[in-house]
Amino acid sequence: MLSQQAKKNTVLYLFILLWVVAVPVIAYVSSMDAKFSIVVFGGIIGLALAVISAMNFRLGYYIYIAVSMIVHVPERMAGTTMPVGVVMDLFLLLMLAGAIFDKKSKEKSNVAYFKDPLLLILYLYTAYLLIQFFNPNMLSIQGWFIFIRVYIRNFIFLFLTIKVLSDWSQIYKFFKFWLALSTAAALYGCLQQAVGLLPFERNYIAMNPDKFKTVMIQGRARIFSFMADPAAFGVLMACGAIIGTILLTAGQKIVSYPKKLLLLFIITVHLLALGFSGTRTAYVMLPVGLLLFFLVNLHNRNTLIAAAIFTFGMLAILFGPFYSSPTIIRIRTAFMGSQDESLSLRDVNRHNIQPYMYTHPIGGGVMTVGNDGVTYNPGHRLAGIQPDSGYLRAVLELGWIGLIITCIYTYMGIHYAVKNYFKEENELNRLLLIGIAAVMYAILVAQYAQEAAGLVESSIFLNAILGITIKVRYNLSTSK
């Protein structure tokens, strides 16, 4: 067996070798085709990262998260659609192989994989999805295979999270990494707002009518940073702002004043980026998530101060004399839904499809709703119907049986997080746990108006904090 230092040296040598090969190859290809050179460059870098992920699955875990966030940038630069999903599947399989053959992974885990209630509900949901293969309402099984592939990707990532984030020091490292990555995305989003979208970004949007409709609203571009779309960007900005605000209420012994200044900067850029994203659902997520935190921490002086400042800021935005800012106007429409025509249209669409829900207990089958239905199940009753809600999509595709399982699973996740919070004694740990609960609750509420949990970036974060929630539950129980 190679020593840890030998493994590190091997990884370093392979990385250097790939770069030595990459430089002349990229230079040669660039002289022929600029777009193709980007693909080659991305392929070589991806190969190097894949080798590293296979040899060190813990490092690969963070590489996977980072690549998931920025993988759309080379796609936009190349001006063409790239097999992003295949790349992510490859990374995940290499990490899984690394975790299986890692010497430390052979140690017995204290997580009750076959007794834990939350995991049992997850297994039940997985079995239900597999049974959907035989759903007679589907017109094609092609969409089912694609859906299951994505689901298995999230399934594996959840269990890798439990494996990688094995103790509180690893959990601290994860949140530091996530906030750093999220802040980088927020800063890039603010840059896009200040100077406008870059030429390759404008060209990519112009080439894709669906992207153009979601990005351009009333002649104004919604900011998406280096993520897939404004919706995913907005949801993650709301999550980052919630966690940053909660950490800001910590005592000085836990979070020093210099770190609090850094947190203030992080929160500020997240809030600015959230506003620029134009994602109304994400606007609602922020007060909803913080409300849960405020309710369980009313005894804390710092929490009361934060609640007062936040409430004053919200009132100023909603009722202040600001009428020229498109961002503020859009924020106001998020909290005054009765005055928004698009929300009224969504309610009408939901009412019209209700009879289908009652008569199809197992749903119409996965990938049969909206644009997915048009692509994979053309001619289906649900094809072309835009759900605009994670719960509505669940009940239409999986039936009310699937919706019940989904709701139980989301409830169990929040229940675990809150229960962990009240069991923990360390202040920083408690803040992170209530932050996880607040983010989960915010996403749960956001699912009513948008498929917030189904976005690639948000699903990665959600599965990561779910894995932390499960792991912490057993760390607490064994430490007593």
Protein model, in words:
There is one protein chain. The model has no long low-confidence stretch (mean pLDDT 81). 37% of the residues are buried. The protein is globular. α3 runs antiparallel to α5. It is built from 20 helices and two strands. Strands 1-2 form a two-stranded antiparallel ribbon. It is mainly α and 480 residues long.
- Distance from N terminus to C terminus (CA atoms, Å) equals 36 Å
Query: Count of DSSP E strands?
Result: 2
Oligomer type? single chain
Please give the share of residues in helix: over 70%
Major sheet, described briefly?
2 strands, antiparallel
Helix-strand pattern: HHHHHHHHHHEEHHHHHHHHHH
Keywords: Ligase, Membrane, Transmembrane, Transmembrane helix
Protein name: O-antigen ligase family protein
Transmembrane segments: 12-30, 36-52, 80-101, 113-131, 143-165, 177-200, 231-249, 261-276, 305-323, 398-418, 430-449
Pfam families: Wzy_C (PF04932)
Give the helices and strands, then pairings.
Layout: H1 4-30, H2 34-55, H3 57-70, H4 72-78, H5 84-101, H6 117-131, H7 142-164, H8 168-195, H9 199-207, H10 209-215, E1 216-217, E2 220-221, H11 230-248, H12 257-277, H13 280-296, H14 301-319, H15 326-335, H16 341-359, H17 370-376, H18 390-423, H19 427-446, H20 456-479
Antiparallel strand pairs: 1-2
Helix pairs in contact: 1-2, 2-3, 2-4, 2-5, 3-5, 5-7, 6-18, 7-20, 8-11, 8-12, 11-12, 11-13, 11-19, 11-20, 13-14, 13-15, 13-19, 16-18, 18-19, 18-20, 19-20
